[in-house]
Design a protein that fits this description.
The complex is a heterodimer of chains A (about 325) and B (about 500). Chain A has about 325 residues and is of the alpha/beta class. Chain A contains twelve helices and ten strands. Chain B has about 500 residues and is an all-alpha fold. Classes of the chains: A alpha/beta (about 325), B mainly alpha (about 500).
């Protein structure tokens, strides 16, 4: 009796454990929900939408994109680790957001709580002016800003955002002082630029792609020029060591088994190697990036150190 | 023009099918309280990725235009704006429904929506590039003044007492400050409540403030919700046509207001409808019953909010700047399709753009029969459903709608708290509209003010930034007119009354 009971208990336990044991090799076996911590239509959404068909092609399973916006993404990230860690719930993660938000206030998570398995692209910062602006080059821009300190106004999306950070970094590198005017999103920021309400704008390569020849790109924060924007010089080639932007990755709850995480990272790496995916991403203005598990620890340590130092200087950091 | 060949391209059976399906899906989603046009487009966007670019665009445009129209149903039948664009539709639509003219109000809303939608689409077709420049003339300071203008309209809405209206507006302004400031990033009035970090969501406020008091009252009294007209007279098209003929100036003016406000990114359908409503009221003949069930009120708001659809596409397609929130999603969908908007779109991808615009016009026309049919069905259902089913059903929708805002319970909590508070406030004579308008306009005014101040400061002259720009001066004149008009009207009424004696 006791034997039989304990045997059935073991069987039940095995049955319960079965789905947990069966993973890694066959992952993914069913639809994976992909939570985007922002609303639809933004860069996080667009890049996820471009990943989706390739994911399906490679794995045979679908990627179901869901939106959970709120508090600039924090509402979702604060919940990440309480979600089921079986690899079937993954979430978009963003830099500098996940470093800056916990520095500013208690948002319900710490940077190290967010377990990103792969950073797959970034939108490099770009300094833009309207196409009829008197500033033909970055040099013109810096000289004008030097002449009248604070009189040059720059639009950008949000306060303490990637755009704001880029403005602060560049002002320091160039020894100038510009006035940053935050707008509630890329759309209003671009409107202010095109309407000449401001002297220039801090945006991304994606914005440059969208606005086309209405704007002139003075510099992009990349190592090398963007393949689809050959006329946009980099900051580096003009003597300013500025490389960065907004990074986007895919994260999972910490409880996700290591082998599943590794498999997910491998799938994401294969998506990133798909020529059609690369072409669509680059045509949209995105810049490809491959930071997988092997490079993750060093990459995160570097960006954390960089953003934390900046946050302290800007007075963002409340700690 | 030479764009008629694109009409034929839009007229393929497949595209017509997508336009039809889009209008039906959009109307139904927009009709449910809490499910907005933005959500309708967002939810249905994934289905369009596998389509041809022009079919995808036509489907999205149809969903959008259907959802803006669908918002009128809940506004008229339940006093709850289905989308923020139909806030002003409640002013006269619900009183009409209470008076047994709900079917007429729905027919009018449909006709006005089609008319407004066509005007907006025709402007998009013929004048998009020159009109897009309007969007660029509006800087932060102009948005600030526009929001102030919207706030002054509260006093003339004429729902209840003006003082209580203004007090409600101030409550809305305070609510708009809760959460992380859009500009500046300060955290305000949050305390320890994480639910408030993201601020008070407009959709959850809409559902709570409008719908909850109606539900509570329905439960608290034994009267039936709505009455059907004495003898059911079909669509009451003849009567509606007669009203339309009398209101042709109102319709044209409201449609143009809607188109122009739609072009301004960041203004949106709620402001367009509000401005059109107050203009209709201002120019109405004496004796018009605005706020008590005047058909002209429904016509003005519905024509204006559907005109914002075409208007909003103007900056979206010409400049690559989304005119309204649903446009932002459609812009993203375009990118996924590999279409880049902006100044080269019309020249390089003319076929897709013109096929889309004609598709939008077709979708708007399809809305006429579809809208009338769904409207009649909705009216009959709401009248026929017993209260014991209606109330829990709508209550469930309010929870679903507010949950779906961000897929988390924070907005449901906000909705419930605001709803109960609104019922309490209604007992002492406060109405929901000023509070909601304060909430919407507060953040626009604040951002505009801070940005204008920063830019003015950088230019070394803050005062000139706010008071010396031509468009700002124009809006300030409108504000003065809006403030002084009720006083003047009252005086005129008094002297007229004295003359009779």
């Amino acid at each position: 009796m006791t034997v039989r009971l304990s045997r059935s208990l073991v069987a039940a336990a095995l049955l319960a454990a079965a789905p947990m044991l069966a993973h890694a090799a066959d992952y993914p076996e069913k639809t994976v929900s992909y939570i985007i911590p922002f609303g639809p239509g933004g860069e996080s959404d667009i890049s996820a939408r471009l990943q989706e068909p390739v994911f399906k092609k490679l794995t045979g399973q679908s990627l179901a994109i869901q939106y959970k916006p709120g508090a600039g993404g924090a509402a979702s990230w604060a919940q990440l680790n309480s979600m089921t860690g079986d690899g079937y719930t993954v979430m978009g993660t963003n830099l500098p957001h996940i470093v800056l938000q916990p520095l500013q206030k208690d948002v319900g998570y710490q940077t190290d709580d967010i377990n990103t398995v792969y950073w797959f692209h970034y939108t490099p910062d770009a300094l833009m002016v309207t196409s009829d602006s008197p500033h033909k080059t970055l040099k013109d821009f810096v000289e004008a800003a030097k002449k009248a300190s604070g009189a040059t106004t720059m639009s950008g999306s949000g306060t303490n955002s990637a755009n704001h950070l880029a403005q602060q970094q560049f002002d320091k590198l160039a020894g100038i002082k510009t006035t940053y005017v935050p707008f509630g999103g890329t759309g209003p920021s671009n409107t202010a630029l095109l309407g000449k309400q401001v002297s220039g704008s801090w945006g991304y390569t994606t914005v440059q792609m969208q606005l086309g020849d209405q704007v002139r790109c003075l510099a992009v924060a990349m190592e090398k020029r963007h393949p689809k924007l050959p006329d946009c010089p980099t900051f580096k080639e003009q003597g300013f060591d500025l490389v960065g932007g907004a990074y986007r990755g895919v994260g999972v709850p910490k409880s996700t088994p290591a082998d599943v995480q590794a498999k997910l990272a491998e799938v994401l790496a294969r998506i990133n190697a798909d020529p059609d995916f690369i072409r669509k991403m680059e045509e949209g203005g995105f810049a490809m990036l491959d930071v997988g598990p092997a490079k993750m620890a060093k990459f995160m340590a570097d960006v954390k150190a960089r953003y934390e130092a900046l946050a302290k200087e800007m007075g963002i950091s409340k700690k | 023009m030479g764009s008629f060949e694109y009409l034929l391209a839009a007229l393929t059976p497949v595209n017509l099918l997508f336009a039809l399906a889009g209008v039906v899906a959009g109307t139904v989603i927009g009709a449910l309280p809490g499910l907005t046009a933005t959500m309708a487009v967002a939810v249905l966007v994934p289905f369009t990725f596998s389509l041809e670019p022009s079919s995808a665009l036509i489907a999205l445009g149809a969903i959008y235009t259907g959802a803006i129209y669908g918002g009128a149903y809940a506004a008229i039948l339940l006093n709850t704006p289905g989308t923020p664009s139909s806030i002003a539709t409640t002013f006269d639509g619900y009183p009409m429904a209470r008076a047994g003219r709900g079917d007429l109000a729905l027919t009018l809303a449909c006709l006005a929506s089609v008319f407004g939608g066509l005007v907006g689409a025709v402007f998009l077709l013929l004048l998009a590039p020159p009109m897009a420049t309007v969007a660029l003339k509006f800087g932060p300071v102009e948005y600030f003044w526009l929001a102030v203008f919207g706030l002054t309209l509260i006093s003339s809405l004429g729902e209840g007492s003006a003082i209580k209206g203004l007090m409600g507006g101030c409550m809305g302004l305070l609510l708009s400050m809760v959460g992380v400031a859009e500009v500046g990033g300060d955290v305000r009035y949050v305390g320890d409540a994480k639910a408030l970090l993201g601020g008070i969501d407009i959709v959850s406020a809409l559902i709570g403030l409008y719908c909850m008091p109606v539900l509570i009252d329905l439960v608290a009294t034994s009267v039936a919700h709505l009455h059907a007209a004495e003898k059911v007279a079909g669509f009451r098209l003849r009567e509606a046509g007669e009203i339309l003929r009398r209101s042709k100036f109102n319709l044209a003016r409201s449609s143009i207001i809607g188109t122009v406000v739609g072009i301004l990114p960041g203004a949106g359908g709620s402001i367009a409808a509000l401005v059109a409503y107050s203009e209709a009221k201002r120019s109405a003949p004496p004796g018009a019953q605005y706020g008590k069930g005047e058909p002209g009120g429904v016509l003005a708001t519905e024509a204006a909010n559907n005109a914002t659809v075409g208007g909003g596409f103007i900056p979206t397609l010409v400049l690559g700047i989304p005119g309204t929130p649903p446009d932002a999603i459609i812009l993203g969908a375009l990118l996924v399709q590999g279409i880049r908007t902006g100044p080269t779109l019309f020249t390089q991808q003319g076929p897709i753009v013109y096929t889309f615009i004609w598709g939008l016009i077709l979708a708007t026309l399809i809305m006429l029969p579809i809208g009338l049919l769904i409207g009649r069905f909705a009216f009959r259902s709401i009248v026929a459903i017993p209260k014991a089913v209606l109330v829990p059903g709508v209550a469930m929708l309010t929870v679903l709608g507010s949950f779906s805002v961000h897929n988390n319970p924070h907005e449901v909590q906000q909705m419930a708290v605001l709803g109960v508070a609104a019922w309490g406030l209604a007992q002492v004579g406060f109405t929901a509209s000023p509070i909601v308008l304060g909430l919407i306009l507060g953040s626009i005014a604040e951002s505009g003010y801070v940005q204008g101040h920063l830019i003015g400061g950088a230019r070394g002259n803050v005062l000139a930034e706010f008071f010396a720009r031509p468009i700002s001066i124009g809006i300030m004149a409108l504000i003065l007119l809006g403030l002084l008009w009720p006083l003047w009207a009252k005086r005129r009424a008094r002297t007229a009354g004295a003359g009779l004696e």
